[in-house]
Amino acid sequence: MILQNILNDIEKVDGEVFERLEHVSRRNMFQTFMKKAMKGAAAGAPVVFASMLNKAYAGAEDVADVLNFALTLEYLEAEFYNMGLAASNLLPQGSVARTIYTQIAKHENAHVALLINALGGVKPGGAIAKPTFDLTYKGAFANVLTNYDTYLAVSQALEDTGVRAYKGQAPRLIGVPAVLEVALQIHSVEARHAARVRQLRGYKGWITNEDTSNIPGVGAVYKGDNMITQANLNVASIAGIQTDTASEAFDEPLTKEQVLAIATPFVVKFN
């Protein structure tokens, strides 16, 4: 991808990128880049450009790492829904479930495309390639693409994990408001997915304590979501608020390590 395209992609995500570069204009950005690149070997040009971007985002914690982490989850979700829709007799034509999952699949594929674009394309130092996945979770959900109930259960676990995962990474993006805004926009849609899937299964649209909604082997997805103290206030101490209601009113974040522990069995290899 040429420099013009890279700058276009970055500016779509962070409209203030040139202000971050000591208030330089797009034209000056090109001039500075070319002067520095001409002083060294042509092969060193990407290093020069990377150095300039590092300076632009010096106050942020490894934005690319956060975006690639999110991209891995979005790849998984997109694969899950694309394969589910392609599977014979899993989601019958004209059914409510197929209509819902068709829309969710479009959302997840759009998320993948956006994150790849924001990272400058699939390449070394940019967006990671789509991993090879095992949707059976190493055999724990062997009939996931043939059994409707299993498919919905795994879908719920994926969406509930995704919601908590985005929340856990938000603090790392505070230094880059434009990127944080995009992440929060995706997060809110993932939350809508989670609620809709839970309702398809006949459960509440929100999580009560650490209840796994009768999905065996996914306790880690809901671990720690029974918090009733928020901002040093015991919400259950408020008149009329029961403990279950207090836990349902707030979702807790999952760390990157917690999410990877949950998601890794889906990954056969990174490509």
UniProtKB/TrEMBL annotation:
Q: Which InterPro entries match?
A: Ferritin-like_SF
- In this record, what's one Pfam family? Ferritin_2
Protein's name according to its UniProt entry:
Ferritin-like domain-containing protein
Its source organism is Spirosoma endophyticum
